[in-house]
Amino acid sequence: MQVALQSIGRIVAGLAQRDPQRPALTHEGRTLTRHELELTSNRLARAYERLGVRQNDMVTVALPNGIEFYQACIAVWKLGATPQPVSARLPRPELEAIVALAQPALIVGTAAEGFPGRAAVPAGYVPDTVLSDGPLPDRVATYWKAPTSGGSTGRPKIIVSNLPSEFDTDLPNPLRIEPDRVLLVPGPLYHNGPFIFSMTGLLRGNHLVVMSRFDAEQTLQLLERWRVDWVNLVPTMMHRIWRLPPAVRNRYDLSALRIMLHLAAPCPPWLKDEWIRWLGPARVHELYGGTEGQGTTWITGEEWLTHRGSVGKPLPEYRMKILDADGRELPPGEVGELYMLPDTGPGSTYHYIGATPKSRAGWESLGDMGWMDAEGYVYLTDRDTDMILSGGANVYPAEVEAALDAHPLVRSSCVIGLPDDDMGQRVHAIVDAVEAVQEEELRDHMAQLVAGYKVPRTFELVSQPLRDDAGKMRRTQLRQERLRQERS
Q1: Residue 475 sits in a domain of what CATH number?
Q2: Are residues 406 and 373 in the same domain?
Q3: What is the rounded distance in angstroms from the CA atom of residue 456 to the CA atom of residue 443?
Q4: What kind and span of H or E run contains 222?
Q5: Beta-sheet pairing, 23-27 with 58-61
Q6: How confident is the model at residue 469 (pLDDT cuts 50, 70, 90)?
Q7: C-beta atoms surrounding 356 within 10 Å
Q8: Which of 64, 109, 126, 451 shows the greatest Cβ crowding within 10 Å of its Cβ?
Q9: Does a structural domain hold residue 1?
Q10: Domain identity same for 364 and 400
Q11: How far apart are CA 258 and CA 254, in angstroms?
Q12: 330 with 415, same domain?
């Protein structure tokens, strides 16, 4: 099959040429057509170029969900540069750490005076109208995206895709996003899932309906109003929708919805059962994989009913295996660490800035434990890392502990994940303080240093040391003790 790759800039221009008045983006009552998206991103690209953005530069995009986010990313791609999305609400120390890693040519979404010596534009930036909105030279970035993640060391890392910013939108799409449909975006765009899914939809001619932030009933309203074809939720969102009174939940017509894809955190089997009963198994799908792109599984609702608890089989272009602690491959049914390898080879899908992958002979692990059955279906059991999955977001304890330990009254801290019906896991902090400290004081302190979803939801003040004489944390033991207390 001949592959007809086109740059993202050329794809956007082609969509505008084919159907200029078709809606491209809708956010809070405002709609931008394909033609308007093409013209505004052209002018914005020229403004960014005037600020110093060049081929293969990185551009940090710190914008909230909305039309401006998409305009900024498309403008960056039209210059052959790489968008590097981060939360618009990042505390200053986190943003500074990411900027130090990325070394972006431009920061979008912050005041220019915030980073002396580095170009920056605030949210709501409007380029000079004297700049042309006509077509630009065709350019392709070497790396099409570079999202960030926390790290087990407490420092952020950047996950740079090794794929260029060019695609063949006529090829079958593994995400099952069909062309010229409607796609709802309820998740934060600085997360890889909402970013990659919505950009894929946009480039395939979908009308994106973008939410500023998730709200359970508003999600149902938008699914009905716009006759949405495809939506991605995380289990926390699914749970909040399910908690709506039945009369509210069943008020809305979801007959147009073809696919509800969930991922990012384990989904309780009872909740998945309820969604399958509600929507039908043909519409409930699950994906497992990391931002790194070394491996992805997919499972339909029909498959899940016969392979309960599985996250599916690897897609054809990936291989997976289960290894024990010594690196030996385990037979079906035995629990070990999940390793994966793309058919394109080790390191072909991404590279880190600020971290090193965990690998064995080219096969890489995201730290997930699990097993495979004789048919090749993957089942996850736990993680071998201390990472907390809270509401579909990754929270690394070391990062939160470093912020807590910066408080002058905190001698040491231990952050663990505890079960939570709403979030999947809640971030719980055990704090050893030199003298009495109020929880509210700790919350205020943390809000200045880490993103809101990383601030512990519960605090436990103790007076005994949390580390041994060698400085080691008894994290697993401390977590097991709390779990026993909660069960008793």
Answers
A1: 3.30.300.30
A2: no
A3: 8
A4: helix 216-225
A5: unpaired
A6: very low
A7: 7
A8: 109
A9: no
A10: no
A11: 9
A12: no
Last residue of a domain, one of 345, 380, 415: 380
How many CB atoms sit inside 10 A of residue 464's CB?
7
Among 113-117, 286-290, 477-481, name the one with the lowest average pLDDT. Answer: 113-117
Strand-pair partners of 26 = 31, 209
The answer to whether residues 451 and 326 belong to one domain is no
Q: Is 445 helix (H, G, I), strand (E, B) or coil?
A: helix
- In eight-state DSSP terms, residue 266 is P
Q: Which amino acid is at 189?
A: L
Q: Is residue 95 part of a domain?
A: yes
Q: Are residue 95 and residue 230 in the same domain, yes or no? A: yes
Query: Tokens in use for 326?
Result: 């010594």
Look up tokens 């399958």; give the residue. 276
Cα 282–Cα 216–Cα 264 angle in degrees, nearest 5: 60
% pLDDT > 90, the chain: 72
Between these two residues, 64 and 395, which has the higher pLDDT value?
64
Tokens for 221? 């309203």
Contacts for 129 with CB less than 8 Å, ≥ 6 apart: 43
Beta-strand ranges (E) seen in 330-423 are 336-342, 350-353, 358-360, 363-365, 368-372, 378-383, 388-390, 393-395, 410-420
Q: How far apart are the first and last CA of the chain?
A: 61
Q: Beta partners for 253?
A: none
pLDDT in tens, 206-258: 999 999 999 999 999 999 999 999 999 998 899 889 989 999 999 999 999 99
Amino acid at 293: G
90 & 201 share domain: yes
CATH number where 303 lies: 3.40.50.12780
Q: What is the 3-state secondary structure (H, E, C) of 367-388?
A: CEEEEECCCCCEEEEEECCCCE
**Which residues does 107 contact at the CB level (< 8 Å), separation at least 6?**
59, 60, 62, 99, 114, 115, 118, 119, 120, 121
Last residue of a domain, one of 322, 357, 380: 380
pTM of the model: 0.85
Q: Reduced to 3 states, what is the DSSP secondary structure of residue 233?
A: strand
Contact criterion met (CB below 8 Å) for 44 and 127: yes
Taking the mean position of all CA atoms in its chain, how far away is CA 325?
A: 29
| Residues linked to residue 289 through DSSP beta bridges, in sequence order | 296
**Domain identity same for 248 and 123:** yes
The more confidently predicted of residues 173 and 133 is: 133
Q: Which tops the pLDDT comparison, 384 or 438?
A: 438
